[in-house]
Amino acid sequence: MKFKKLSIMFGLLYLLVTTASQAFNDTTYLQDPEHQFWFDIDDLPTIKLHFSEDQWHVLLSSTSSVREVVSGDMTFIKGGVEYPLNNIGIKISGNTSFELPEQENGNYAQANFTLDFDEFVDNQVLSGISKLKLKRFKDDQSYVQSLYLIILCIILMFGRRTLRPTHA
Q1: pLDDT of amino acid 32
Q2: Where are the alpha helices (DSSP H) in the chain?
Q3: Phi, psi of 64 (to 5 degrees)
Q4: Residue burial 60-91, b: 16+ Cβ < 10 Å; e: rest
Q5: Angle at Cα 166 formed by Cα 29 and Cα 83, nearest 5°?
Q6: Rounded CA separation 144/82 (Å)
Q7: Strand pairing partners for 84?
Q8: Global pTM?
Q9: What would the mean pLDDT of 106-133 be, rounded to a whole number?
Q10: Contact indicator for 76, 45 with CB cutoff of 8 Å
Q11: Which residues have CB under 8 Å from 156's CB, separation 6+?
Q12: Per-residue confidence at 92, pLDDT binned at 50, 70, 90?
């Protein structure tokens, strides 16, 4: 009886994995202009966030358990072209990596941000997306990049589609 249950479980797992992998073999999305806008390794963008002083202080009152969402503006600069978005939702994010961008001693630190373009303005998007997460790696970035590239090469060797995070 145990063998039959295990056989059924493995059969269902095999069906799930093969069905999912067939769906991931389509790589036509790589040529999509909106995908190229976000994932062009040769044209790293600049992102500027703008806050009123009051909104900045509200943001700094966030804790790891209570995240304050504030209104601010963002300027996304790519290829010398500026893409401004006004009145977006901005909050500090991260679980074990949660850190305020301004420390009590006045020093600035890298922090994770979640930008929600349509938090306050319905259907506001930039090149097809309405949210953007700006994440920092709290340890050695070169290790993460090297490890990611190794894993990416292995996945691509097997002809599988993979996510394409970007970092600088």
Answers
A1: 77
A2: 2-24, 33-38, 53-60, 141-157
A3: -65, -20
A4: eebeeeeeebbbbebebebeeeeeebeebbbb
A5: 80
A6: 30
A7: 75
A8: 0.66
A9: 91
A10: yes
A11: 162
A12: very high
Q: Tell me which residue has tokens 């039959």.
A: 4
**What is the DSSP-derived secondary structure letter of residue 95?**
S
In this structure, what are the phi and psi dihedrals at residue 15, rounded to the nearest 5 degrees? -60, -45
Side chain identity at 141, as an amino acid letter?
Answer: Q
DSSP state of 69: P
Name the least confident of 22-36, 91-105, 128-142.
22-36
* Residue that is written with structure tokens 């001693």 in the block: 105
| CA-closest candidate to residue 133, choices 84, 101, 90 | 90
State pLDDT tens for residues 125-161. 998 889 998 887 666 555 455 555 666 666 666 666 6
